[in-house]
Specification:
Elements lengths: L7 H6 L7 E4 L3 E5 L9 E5 L11 H22 L3 E5 L15 E6 L15 H12 L3
Antiparallel strand pairs: 1-2, 2-3, 3-5, 4-5
Helix pairs in contact: 2-3
Length: 138
């Protein structure tokens, strides 16, 4: 596994920064996005540090894709959303703010347009309630 001690996602994976984990295995980790586009927004992150998707070894990319499929199913089932966006940015010009490959899974319900502005949870308790739903504890 490749690790960058200056990377915030590597620090989350290492347990140096707390997160609300949704799923973890030996190859990837999924956790709540602290600045969600919609409530229940999660990230899926490979434990292998690479800045962009093109920097990932193929076997890591395959595991990431399978993980995204699994976590998207959890989001859809446990939150009861009508749909979801899967978003993956590469490089600052594409909107990537953390230089570690990550995939956004964004729950969606009907809306007249896509609102890509980050939102906040009303409270830490509300974010924890969504975490419980995603963990199947509610």
């Amino acid at each position: 596994m490749v690790h960058d001690s200056n990377c915030i996602f590597c620090k989350i994976i290492a347990g140096e920064i707390p997160s609300l984990k949704i799923y973890e295995d030996e190859d990837l980790m999924s956790f709540m996005d602290i600045n969600p586009f919609s409530k229940g927004h999660v990230l899926v992150v490979p434990k292998y540090h690479a800045q962009t998707i093109t920097d990932l070894p193929e076997e890591v990319l395959v595991k990431l894709a399978k993980g995204v499929q699994k976590i998207a199913g959890i989001v859809r089932q446990r939150l009861g959303c009508e749909g979801f966006n899967v978003l993956q940015n590469n490089g600052a010009a594409a909107g990537q703010t953390v230089p570690h490959v990550h995939v956004h899974i964004i729950p969606r319900n009907p809306a007249p347009h896509l609102d890509w502005k980050s939102k906040k949870y009303d409270s830490d308790e509300e974010m924890h309630a969504y975490h419980k739903k995603l963990m199947g504890e509610e």
